[in-house]
Amino acid sequence: MASELRGLILDLSFRGRTPHLGSSLSCADIVALLYNEYLRIDPVRPDDPDRDRFILSKGHAATTLYAALALHGFLPMEELETTYAHPGSRLPEHPSWRCVPGVEASTGSLGHGLCVGLGLALGLRIRRSPGRVFVLMSDGECNEGSVWEAAMAAPAWAINPLCAIVDFNGWQATGRSREVLALESIDRKFEAFGWRTCRVDGHDLAALRAALAGFGEDPTDRRPLAIIADTVKGRGVSFMEDDNNWHYRLPTADEVRRGKLELGLSTP
Amino acid sequence: MRDAFAKIVTELGRQDERLVLLSGDIGNRMFDQFKEEHPDRFYNCGVAEANMVSMAAGLAMAGFRPWIYTIASFLTYRPFEQIRVDAAYHGLPIVFVGTGAGLSYATNGPTHHCLEDIALYRVLGGFRIACPGDALEVSACARELQNAPGPAYLRLGKKGEPKIFTEPPAAPLGRARQMRPGQHAALLSTGNLLPETTAACAQLAARGLDVAHWHFPWVQPIDADALAEVFASVPLVVTAEEHCIDGGFGSLVAEWRAEQVSGARLLRAGTPRRFLHVATEQAHARHECGIDAAGLVARIEAALAEQTARTLSVS
């Protein structure tokens, strides 16, 4: 599914003329894995109060979210392919809450998703719901102080149905995320804040599965879970990988064709 | 007002198990009763307002009705983007309760003064804004907000304000209340300045000026019917609020007035467009800003004298 997701992401960026391609590609494996194997959600009952919630806090990777939702039956694929980001479409460049079923929060401004997810997870716990909350952030997003406010609060109240995943692709808009601010060691930071923390290769599905094993199910460990997923920006398309120009650049038709060839997908 | 809020939120918490109370590390002991009755529905969120606001959004998405309580200036200014995006953009039913609004914490200096809050909540759209005038009206407004469909702001003063109402008043959403009739002018008040405006009208009456007094516990939605009645019935209208002259209640009335065909002259009394740098306390600051009873009396007397002089010179 990850290759299929990446092919869709390329197409959407080209057709919608929207940037952040590198950021959308870096988290494709994580998002594909969550939707394929972990999220207890149902497109027939998208408002089930006991469903799991996935919040794409790095809202600039909206194409990844929309593509996953379309592949899982939450919105018609044709609608996504023909209307995304077009004037009047219900699929804007950054996700808007309930714009289509399965979009759990409006994002686009960084540093909101973990705090909202914390509130959701707290609410689910008060209601004794089995629902869990997954929040996907970017590494640059962790510049925001609000992330660390939530990071302090969640362990204080032992909110363990909450999983924060940092798509650590090493770049933010204008530079290496390790250099812009002192982000490292981000896994030790989360650990010091009281989270159960794993740092894994974010493109290694087995490693991600191991990190997610037992999430929210261990009655003796009430810590929330933080997964730092080391990824490559632009992953899957050789000429986009680790090239931060693809934070803003739009692909040409030929680049989309070549990218999809590399992904093993048929060209349009 | 603070104690009245603690009492009413505890009562509402009993009636509605969706009510969750979040506090920004203030109100020590105030909420003991609430905590005792609903230990899983009270959270001290620490000195971390951004997280508190977004968390409230998450709780609302999970079906709860969060009430957030902290000092008005910290509640509003620090997490304004969270208020805009997570509360207003999502249209979630979160009640923001700002204590110590206006000049209530005047002694603490401009970091604690909260004189731009109405302006900020007002421009977001979708916010209901309640500015009760005394402790009894706090409870009445809170009851109205219990089932509000979207976000709301409840603007509180501090502790021990004068009681204006002798019986619990009704404060139906979006309705103003005529406190006294009058034909020479009308004084429109909102929020915790109510004791000053009440006193001002009494003093003006003693001086032979018959000034109507209307109190607006709701700034949003505004009572346009009341405004239409007031502006058609007197030659001079003066608004008074413990808020900056820009963007607040008087500003809203001015915007309404600008779109009318005709009506009375409007003057606005509020705090100036500057920080109050010297040490002060609430009564002193009100006096310096001309929004205490004496300042309002002087302003209205002068304006009426000016209008009379102008009428005489024209005739």
- Determine the number of helices of chain A (DSSP H or I, runs of at least 4 residues): 11
Shape of chain A: globular
Number of strands of chain A: 7
Biggest sheet record of chain A? 5 strands, parallel
Rounded to the nearest angstrom, the radius of gyration of chain B is 20 Å
Oligomer: heterodimer
Quote the average pLDDT of chain A: 96
**Portion in helices of chain B:** 40-55%
Strand order of the largest sheet of chain B: 2-1-3-4-6-5-10
Helix-strand pattern of chain A: HHHEHHHEHEEEHHEHEH
Task: Strand order, main sheet of chain A: write it out.
Answer: 1-2-3-7-6
**Percent in strands of chain A:** 5-15%
Q: How many extended strands of chain B?
A: 12
List low-confidence stretches of chain B.
Answer: none
Task: Give the N-to-C terminal Cα separation of chain B.
Answer: 50 Å
Tell me what the structure shows:
The complex is a heterodimer of chains A (268) and B (315). Chain A is α/β, with parallel strands linked by helices. Chain A contains 11 helices and 7 strands. In chain A, the strands form 2 sheets. Chain A has a 5-stranded parallel β-sheet, sandwiched between helices. A two-stranded antiparallel sheet of chain A has the order 4-5. The model of chain A has no long low-confidence stretch (mean pLDDT 96). At the A-B interface, helix 6 and helix 7 of A face helix 3 and helix 5 of B.
